[in-house]
Design goal:
The protein is mainly alpha-helical. It is built from five helices and no strands.
Length: 148
């Protein structure tokens, strides 16, 4: 089932996640230079989309028994729930470190949009990648299971 393309797209997604993390400022630092990650986001969106499309194609073409499809759906749903809980905890902790959301006058990101040099990793991180991949897997498996 695994192909060279899906492995390459997976590795590109990991590189994109690391790049976003490296160019995002920590809550402890100070940045007045704007958001350099904006330049990386087209690459991130492209790599995530290519990975999702390739994952969809591979799952759609693979031959599974109905019970295996059910197990894949259950597993991907569990991964979705776990990654969502981890993402929520991560976002809550980051917003706490920043002093609150952009609407809070005491916040380091006061009057910034949600996507800024301190919060890029809210949108692009390994948790969001797992959420995305598990949604693609769950929906494709559900479609195939219903179709059978």
């Amino acid at each position: 089932m695994l192909s060279r393309q899906i492995i390459i797209y997976f590795l590109l997604c990991i590189i994109a996640i690391v790049m976003v993390r490296e160019f995002t400022f920590s809550p402890e630092s100070f940045s007045d230079n704007g958001n350099p990650v904006i330049l990386i986001f087209p690459f991130v969106v492209l790599t995530f989309a290519l990975f999702g499309y390739e994952l969809f194609l591979k799952l759609k073409e693979a031959s599974f028994k109905a019970s295996t499809l059910r197990d894949i759906m259950v597993g991907s749903f569990i991964v979705l729930l776990a990654a969502s809980v981890l993402e929520f905890a991560y976002v809550s902790e980051l917003i706490r470190k920043l002093g609150g959301p952009p609407a809070n006058e005491e916040s380091k990101i006061y009057s910034f949009p949600w996507l800024n040099q301190y919060t890029n990793t809210i949108f692009v991180n390994f948790h969001t990648f797992l959420i995305y991949a598990s949604i693609v897997t769950f929906c494709t498996s559900l479609y195939r299971w219903i179709k059978k």
